[in-house]
Amino acid sequence: MKKNLFFLFTATILMAIMLSACGSTTKTSDNSSTATQTSKSTDTSKESQGNVVNIKVMAKDFEYDKKEIHVKKGDKVKITLQSDDGGHGFTIPAYNVNIQGNKSAEFTADKTGTFEYHCSVMCGTGHAKMTGKLIVE
User: Which of 49, 54, 80, 125 makes an SS bond possible with 104, Cβ 3.0 to 4.6 Å?
Assistant: First the structure.
């Protein structure tokens, strides 16, 4: 009986911790301006400056606002992750990019192809659906 009660208590505590990881409503103050979101899922926050490409990705409600990101081979890419609803991450394993929290990463798109990106922080029940594609042409 004590083992069952201990197991139930431990499981309840672990579930509460996992659910609270992405359920936070604490907002981080950020002085940078945010782009107005539209219904398009690609290139809405992409600014090209020669071969430097700045991309802002919003992570919210277990999804990214961009399902695809298109760049050209040779572009210098800066990805900025913004997450207002808890701890999320953004990783592109093929380019050794791993952003956690409201930060940025830079890399050169030196390989053509389609590369998956996904959330690198276990953020809750919708974690597995936080994916997208980087397409380097």
Answer: 80
Confirm if 132 and 68 have CB atoms less than 8 A apart.
yes
Give me the residue spans of the domains in the chain: 45-137
Yes or no: say if 74 and 91 are a contact pair by the CB < 8 Å rule.
no
CATH of the structural domain 45-137, one choice from 2.10.109.10, 3.20.20.70, 2.60.40.420, 3.30.870.10: 2.60.40.420
Could you tell me if 34 and 56 are in contact, meaning their C-beta atoms sit under 8 angstroms apart? Answer: yes
Does position 23 have pLDDT exceeding 50, yes or no?
Answer: no
Q: Which of 33-37, 77-81, 90-94 has the lowest mean pLDDT?
A: 33-37
Q: Can you give the C-alpha Rg of the chain in angstroms?
A: 18
